[in-house]
Amino acid sequence: MSGLTSSEFVRHAAAALERVRNTRPRVHCLMNTVVQKLVADGLSAIDAIPSMTSSPEEVEAFVEKADALSVNLGTLDSQRRTSITLGVSASARLGRPWVLDPAHCDYSASRATFAQQLLREGTPILRANEAEFWLLQVSDDVVGVRTGKHDVVRKGAQSITIENGHPLTAKVTGTGCLSGAVIAAFLALGEDPHLSAASALLAFGVASELAADHARGPGSFEPALLDALHAISPDDILKRARISHDQG
Amino acid sequence: MSGLTSSEFVRHAAAALERVRNTRPRVHCLMNTVVQKLVADGLSAIDAIPSMTSSPEEVEAFVEKADALSVNLGTLDSQRRTSITLGVSASARLGRPWVLDPAHCDYSASRATFAQQLLREGTPILRANEAEFWLLQVSDDVVGVRTGKHDVVRKGAQSITIENGHPLTAKVTGTGCLSGAVIAAFLALGEDPHLSAASALLAFGVASELAADHARGPGSFEPALLDALHAISPDDILKRARISHDQG
Amino acid sequence: MSGLTSSEFVRHAAAALERVRNTRPRVHCLMNTVVQKLVADGLSAIDAIPSMTSSPEEVEAFVEKADALSVNLGTLDSQRRTSITLGVSASARLGRPWVLDPAHCDYSASRATFAQQLLREGTPILRANEAEFWLLQVSDDVVGVRTGKHDVVRKGAQSITIENGHPLTAKVTGTGCLSGAVIAAFLALGEDPHLSAASALLAFGVASELAADHARGPGSFEPALLDALHAISPDDILKRARISHDQG
């Protein structure tokens, strides 16, 4: 964890949330069509500024104006493939941080090949599940976010485990995609990527817990999550963080 | 109604809901872009597993992994047309059940022709309104679901009428598409298609009534419907079912 | 304001809302993929009838069946560009009113050029922000809606300023697009376009205020806004309108 104690990390995360709210980073999202609205609303809720076009003619202009890029391989067709390639190249050329979510690349061979090709283009934060990590054979310099019951953020031998979160999150389509975009917003601060990714997930996990207090099920959980992302304060993070770490 | 009495059918429907929750069927959806998120969330709410890609290169791999297919002809362009053709062929080849919603095929001649072509490809459950049924001249071996004030599920001379439901459902875009996808989830159980379609609509109608208790209008009805689909129990169906049937 | 006093305008707006509910205008929407669901639900909430296809093969058939057209240039790709061109031409040929939202045309040169080309095709209501108006150099016969803290509806030297509204509106992606579609629904009444656009925005602004009473943040504001658009009465407009006007 870059030499920080757990409580130093939690204080870092709380302060990073404040910096996101103050700097209002622009995050361009190349998201599947299913989740675009939720991701845009979630970014707005933390005071980031989303843009969502995946038109090949426009993507470079929007990535240039953005501070970070969030890429998701869901609902992948040839046009989206072109746009993602253009967007990731532009992002690499401009030195912008980016997040890659290979979204079920284990279901479709063409999607897995494409994910591997993108990983050669630049070094993203990779947000994936166990099966996807295994398939993609990620190298040690990539910060990997393995989501599941707990979120684990790993770089080489170092890992941070976030125990905050709520099971209803998994019942709402797109919350994983949104957490990737929130990571991109924190990366835009230009701080250590490992800490930024873990800070973003800690904020997201705490917001999920706050949301659950106002939810009757997965339907009401979604607006409650957006309300909580809008309301969450550094203090909520300091009070509720449950993390552990392993220095490798 | 395949020889069942009304109360035997209601018990069948209640048990079918339980089996859906336990078996977690995978439903691939070829849906218009407007409603993808609602349909995915609604399937997750009943513990089915949705997938939504309509990319021509990926659709067959996803249909192969799915237990049933739900097709909606809204926002139909040439790429979606290709994907639907590929998806329906794969589904027919694999013997998977599927639902077809011709979505306003009476507005657009090219859409009606396409619907007729799909009906020759295999025998779906057809979810349509009066005008669409008339236009498509469906043969007697197709299970037809006519939605409206009451839902009528017909096969040949036999019909089941579901009186449960709530008028706010019609004010929320995509609830009809979602009911089609819920039918697909019940079809995945591999039971009599006529009973499965009627069971799905009964569960959906009862959930709509439960949702209305927590709604102030169409906006709050949508999350309440998802909450209700998540919460609805076999017991709710047994207590609230209002159906009638006609043996032809 | 076409010679009306402020209170005459407010009474006009209240009556126009009633006429929209009674006539149920059909509004075809060529919207970016992010906001389609919200826009469809918002139109249904005021009892208008939305359609959303942007397939080039279908758009003309749908525009023909519609009473007004609402066009938004977000997520613009070549197919959407074709559809919008076809839709706007059909609309001009049929003499249907239409609304144009150039959506960040200041971000992308190709989008700005396309917006200018559409403005030569016919005379829409133009819904834009300050930067977009400046860029597009709109002629005096276009009714311009400048959204921001207050909404200003201008034609030539005459302007109406709507002070109703709520800051949470800006935190929900697609509320601006929806307000454009609501303008289209009011335009479908066939009355003075300047008054219709201002009436629509007044109704929308008052609904936003009603919604805020039931919102905990931007997430719960969205369903509350749809509930309010469904519930808002002419009386709410008469009681809550805060407008000013300038006769030039």
**Average pLDDT score of chain A:** 92
What number of structural domains do the residues of chain A give?
1
Order of helix and strand elements from N to C terminus of chain A: HEHEHEHEHEHEEEHHHHE
The proportion of residues forming helix of chain A, as a percent range, comes to 40-55%
The CA-CA distance between the termini of chain A, in Å, is 9 Å
CATH level-four homologous superfamily name of chain A: Ribokinase
Protein name (chains A, B, C): hydroxyethylthiazole kinase
EC number (chains A, B, C): 2.7.1.50
Keywords (chains A, B, C): ATP-binding, Kinase, Magnesium, Metal-binding, Nucleotide-binding, Thiamine biosynthesis, Transferase
Pathway (chains A, B, C): Cofactor biosynthesis; thiamine diphosphate biosynthesis; 4-methyl-5-(2-phosphoethyl)-thiazole from 5-(2-hydroxyethyl)-4-methylthiazole: step 1/1
General description of the model:
- Chains A, B, C: This is hydroxyethylthiazole kinase.
- Chains A, B, C: It comes from Aquamicrobium zhengzhouense.
- Chains A, B, C: Pathway: Cofactor biosynthesis; thiamine diphosphate biosynthesis; 4-methyl-5-(2-phosphoethyl)-thiazole from 5-(2-hydroxyethyl)-4-methylthiazole: step 1/1.
- Three copies of one chain form a homotrimer.
- With 248 residues, the first copy, chain A, is an alpha/beta fold.
- The first copy, chain A, has a single domain, classed as UDP-N-acetylmuramoyl-L-alanine:D-glutamate ligase (3-Layer(aba) Sandwich).
- Helix content of chain A is 51%, strand content 16%.
- The first copy, chain A, is built from ten helices and nine strands.
- The first copy, chain A, has a nine-stranded mixed beta sheet with strand order 2-1-3-4-5-6-7-8-9, sandwiched between helices.
- In chain A, strand 5, helix 6 and strand 6 form a beta-alpha-beta unit.
- In chain A, helix 8 crosses helix 9.
- The longest helix of chain A is centred in the last third of the chain and has 20 residues.
- The first copy, chain A, is globular, with a radius of gyration of 16 Å.
- Chain A starts with 5 loop residues before the first helix and ends with a strand.
- The model of chain A has no long low-confidence stretch (mean pLDDT 92).
- Chains in contact: A-B, A-C, B-C.
- Chains A and B meet through helix 5 and helix 9 of A and helix 2, helix 3 and helix 9 of B.
